[in-house]
Amino acid sequence: xxxxxxxxxxxxxxxxxxxxxxxxxxxxxxxxxxxxxxxxxxxxxxxxxxxxxxxxxxxxxxxxxxxxxxxxxxxxxxxxxxxxxxxxxxxxxxxxxxxxxxxxxxxxxxxxxxxxxxxxxxxxxxxxxxxxxxxxxxxxxxxxxxxxxxxxxxxxxxxxxxxxxxxxxxxxxxxxxxxxxxxxxxxxxxxxxxxxxxxxxxxxxxxxxxxxxxxxxxxxxxxxxxxxxxxxxxxxxxxxxxxxxxxxxxxxxxxxxxxxxxxxxxxxxxxxxxxxxxxxxxxxxxxxxxxxxxxxxxxxxxxxxxxxxxxxxxxxxxxxxxxxxxxxxxxxxxxxxxxxxxxxxxxxxxxxxxxxxxxxxxxxxxxxxxxxxxxxxxxxxxxxxxxxxxxxxxxxxxxxxxxxxxxxxxxxxxxxxxxxxxxxxxxxxxxxxxxxxxxxxxxxxxxxxxxxxxxxxxxxxxxxxxxxxxxxxxxxxxxxxxxxxxxxxxxxxxxxxxxxxxxxxxxxxxxxxxxxxxxxxxxxxxxxxxxxxxxxxxxxxxxxxxxxxxxxxxxxxxxxxxxxxxxxxxxxxxxxxxxxxxxxxxxxxxxxxxxxxxxxxxxxxxxxxxxxxxxxxxxxxxxxxxxxxxxxxxxxxxxxxxxxxxxxxxxxxxxxxxxxxxxxxx
Length: 666
Hints:
Elements: H1 2-6, H2 30-48, H3 50-54, H4 62-70, H5 74-86, H6 130-143, H7 151-162, E1 164-169, H8 172-178, E2 182-186, H9 195-205, E3 244-257, E4 267-278, E5 284-290, H10 296-307, H11 310-317, E6 334-337, H12 339-342, H13 348-353, E7 357-360, H14 370-380, H15 395-400, H16 402-405, H17 411-427, H18 438-442, H19 449-459, H20 469-475, E8 478-485, E9 488-491, E10 496-499, H21 501-506, E11 519-525, E12 532-537, E13 540-546, H22 558-600, H23 609-639, H24 657-665
Parallel strand pairs: 3-6, 6-7
Antiparallel strand pairs: 1-2, 3-4, 4-5, 8-9, 8-11, 9-10, 10-13, 11-12, 12-13
Helix pairs in contact: 2-4, 2-5, 6-7, 23-24
């Protein structure tokens, strides 16, 4: 056999079977096991009489009979049979690709773009290659020197030496005209490694621990958020009106148009609808509609509408409704809410200042607030099949945007419809399956929300709290924190600076805490205006105004300030790219000057301090001489011509003041 192998009468093949094909079928994953069983059942009769199948003549029909019995294609039967033979007649080998895909070798993944998240501002960084890593190794040697430069300096040096489009060293004449002696023009930002890419590579080279000199110091005192929610239970025993309110919002399915467009052709999408309902009486106490995204700024307006006088609210909206049919108002003892709008520091105002307990529903459990969830569905039924601008669940209608094309209602009109429904619900709707108590049955109280409210206020009062509108509005303002510095008050999370006469007069801005900490004050603000904030003190609220350094944000909302700052960030990023080209030229000039000075320096002993003082005096003669010459020249040109009889007529160069410098030189 060895002789036949050497003469290639017998060819030797190495069967490179995958390790899964050598395992028992019971050890295979379920998906492989099912595929093996199905394919083996297809070719089982052929395998049982394998010798006869391999020796069959044309027309014997071994394969044709299997094709007719199973209904599989001819190609499938042959592929399964050949795969069984190719895998060494192993049943486990039938789970691998068969037919034309049996010898397929998947291509290795190639990266064509820089991995990671997109850069903020402008596109930075590139897909690193071997040349980039070799350059990084040079930077590692520079950085690893004793008393070596910082990471940022090493990174800039890498850019200057290896990622430039051009480096210019102008002669003195050109430098005087252009003002540029050295200038390095870099490649575009997306063709050079970013600082973060170099920093990340450098960290890995040091095993994840950079030298302490380049670690940024972190403040030991960190502001921790209260992530532990206050759990709630909607099935508590409620015995009176105002004891528990349920608050929730939903994106209403009615498409709306702008109120400022008389033609009703400006689409504004769907509105967000807030309802507040009393759990005991099922009476709707509050309503708010907006196109803003759900936030504390919107939910506080819903709470404010629930606690204020409804007639003033109707007058603000310009509606001719009578508030005697909706007189209910006030602040409850407990409000059942979602975590989204209240689980943050911004919403701590009503929790701290109002006698209200907030309870949170569990995530994904709408049955924790069954009353308010059911109310949304009931109100929606009045639009389904009636309004063509109501979004249905039909995928075809959604794809064709039927509801948006037929939108015609404005927000004030949706307000009117919602208020009319609230008046009907509170005063006329009989609640089905309402659990009337024995006392209610005795007093013949119908299951109508307003009747239940009147009976509860008469027999079980004390849960509802009436707060004046102005006071309620102030206590619902968003809450923030300010750090006190000697140059002003800094509003955290907003990045704005304020001034306050009260903090200056009380000396708070001069107070210093240990470990370089800053004094923190609570404040209130309106999200729609950054000009004024109110500082919470023991003597009440104190006014703070926007500092002149941030005057460009005057009259804006905090959301607009964030947008403008983001825009400024992008502009600064572009400006920094242009600035670094000149900065690298400055670095190049300094290094050239130091190199030239070191070459011209002659080594010698270090003189004593008295000799150095004499040298400094001598070095200052030039400045003194230039200053005196400029004074005499200006005096002769500007002052003496105005005097009729000057005390002397002498040329500046012959003035005796120069003799003193001659004596000093001697």
